[in-house]
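Hi R.,

Here's the chain you asked about this morning:
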Amino acid sequence: MAAQRIQSVTIRRLRWEAHGRRQEAGFYPTAYDGGVTPQTGYVLEIRTDAGITGEYTWTTGINGHAADHIASIAGWLVGQDAMQRERIWNELRRVWRKYDQLGLGPLDCALWDIAGKTYDAPLWELLGGYRTRLPAYASTLFGDDAGVGPLGTPDKYADFAQHCVSLGYRAVKLHGWNDGDIRREIDLVRTVREAVGPDIALMLDPSGAYRTFADILTVGRALDEANFFWFEDPGMEGGTSAFAYDKLRGMLRTPFLQGEHIRGLQAHMDNVIAGGTDFMRADAGLDGGVTGVLKIAHAAEALGIDVELHATSPVHRHLMASLRNSNFYEMGLVAPSLNDITPPFFEDYADRLDEVDADGTVGVPSGPGLGTPLNRDWIAAHEVDVFVAD
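And here is the predicted structure, written out as tokens:
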């Protein structure tokens, strides 16, 4: 295959309003009927001299930080061979070694999109292909402190969990109130388990809200009693203290899932080898794109453990479709007032709470590359800024 030189790098910044949620005074969006939250997102386009454009979109989690990083090296990218993903990946890991390297994820995903379009094959096929239907779990929004929203009380969570099960989900993950009130968290755990019965996999993700080792241990004991499938990133240090979680793993039966706040292959491996987690977490946007996640997933496979992909994304569908050692696709964040998850970036792709089949699975895009052509009209209508290097 002849080289494909990068001709231009374009980053579009968009703004719009998401309905069915509101932004609380804190950091986390919570479910609320009729609520509206301002949103910011980005579209990356990398065009080659073969006339092929690799595309990637993102919103939460990495936002403007990644856009700034990519813009800072866009001049260097122009003229590089887009098919040399591994070389570009390693060069930028070195260049950004003092920084968080968030620009690497979107950039690498766009380069893989170019590869798929070049070979006229979907990404999952290029990566080897393991399955085309993905077991999914419903991952809730955060609780409403006022108690009046659709996720305002443990009983309302339980009602929503039952609804998800009625749609076909075999697994549900709870994000609680993120205020460190472990008594309410324990009530939530017990109430939802009682509502859905013993056969549904349940997970709890406090998103780093618990303040002490004792809080994590106390809630963990409740998870043991309720037979939860995993306990995700409960502590304020973000799951980075392998020493603490190694001790907790010896005191609790419920497996830990950590790594969302640990960046890259080496740090993930150091954490798991030191006993900091049972399941590994990976995110194409946060951990170096498709290339980065593949490295983490295959390293986990070598250790005989599983890797779970963080959040919705067509890239994550392709990746999970190519991995044996991954259990669930995260359909989130969802709530009774929020069925449509993905912003309308795409023509024919969207993550929706109600898209699971009777077996609780979702499909994988079948078009070349990421298989998600962009909705150019919507993007143009919401564009507020554009950066171009050529």
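One quick note: DSSP finds twelve helices and 13 strands in the chain.

Cheers,
M.
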